Amino acid sequence: MDIYLHRYLLKLKHHFKIARDERSVQPTLIVELSDGQISGYGEATTNTYYGITYENMSEVLAKAGDTLKDYSFSTPAQLWEDLKDIFHSNSFAQCALDEAAYDYYAQKLGKPLYQVWNLDLSTMPQTNYTIGIDTIENMVNKLKEMPWNIYKIKLGTPHDIEIVKALRKHTQARFRVDANCGWGVEETIRNSYELRKLDVEFIEQPMKADNWEGMKEVYQHTALPIIADESCIRESDVEKCFGHFHGINIKLMKCGGITPTLRMIQKARQLQMKVMVGCMTESSVGTSAIAHLAPMIDYVDMDGPLLISNDIADGVKLSIEGTAFPPRNGLGIVLLPNLH
Ligand SMILES: [Mg+2]
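^ Dipeptide epimerase, sequence as received from the core. Prediction below:
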């Protein structure tokens, strides 16, 4: 089998700002896994916070490509296991290849991936639409220009409650908030009571990733469920989050793809924790992989394609009515030819 790499620059519709980062373009890498007849696709974006570049992803994928030259493919999980030593420092590249392997595998079986897993699409959660940090006026405008059922509001400013109050005046939609490590213990507990009055569903990662003591206190006194994101990177973190968070937000690129995500979902369920899967501002390639997992989870954040103006692929489609799967096997992805 062969690996081919395709680079793209995704353009964000709005300059995107969260508590620790901001950007208006997002470089992304599409990995194609091919046996010469069938190609599977997966995606990983570059990420300064995690030190992920095109160069270091290409480097490990070249090593993986050497192993795959005369590899006898059986399952994506086996491939993940056989290559895990190559990828130990680069979960993003590992994720892109793992997604491609699932796409390839389901196409070989002649089914969409959710059918390979016997999932029922009728009960899957709908994605939220993210509103990045901006002036209150601009955040209200972003909400008004995108009528939606569930919004994820990025917080971590000196006037967070004012932001949510202003947005609440314009919609009865479900709200969830993400402080991206921007708050302290008392602030989180205080905000949880204020935000509950504003019909917020949960708070994502209020405090720094390693503040486990603080999280324990928040867990005991919060008025709203708390979901881990930056505190839940890899498989071993799920157990650590138990008793500190009510649920976890799994990012495929941070944990290394679909294979470990399936194990993390299972572990969280055993611990009776809520499960969310989130995206990293990727195209329809990566979010299609998330969509196939969605019937297994409680909440999904896969609005990447809605936030970019130059999606590079046709895949799972998102609208206010819900999620539409294309009538194609695998992940259902087709790279748009003019960009390929
Ligand atoms: Mg988050």
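The mean pLDDT is 96.
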